[in-house]
Task: structure prediction
Amino acid sequence: MDAKIEINRLSKDELEYELSLYGVSGEATVESMRRSLRQLRRLYTGTNYELPAYPFSFEQDSTALQAKIKTLTDAVEKFSDVRTSSDYLKLSSSIACAFGRVQRSKPLTEADSKLRQQFSVQLVDLLSRLSHQAKFARKSMVRAQSTLLDITMVTPPGNLNFCFLNMTN
Result:
């Protein structure tokens, strides 16, 4: 998957999930959870520290992922901005967080494994649709800019100024 998690774009439930991977839980503000997650990632990156055992059952992951995919699907359908927008970055971070949860989930049965695969496919599809809509929005924006009036000042013989309006497409 091409998206990456940007900690500043994660929602409270996503931050709680990410922190629980490090064994951290409890009530805190979103800003303090972001600070804690950044510090924990720095601490664990490039060290021999091992993460605690994965704290969620497949049933818990499945329930959370179904709800998250529904929320993300609705948000992606409404999305109509470019890749550099904060909405795009938030959605792509949420998709990446959910994809990480899918990858960490521990299916117990063959049916669980198939469901896990479906979650992966749905999330990759969501990221693809989000990217497509961002490209479409960019093309629409460029097209709109190219149809602006081009005003050209021309000085014909006799030093009279004429203004020509050119419509460009």
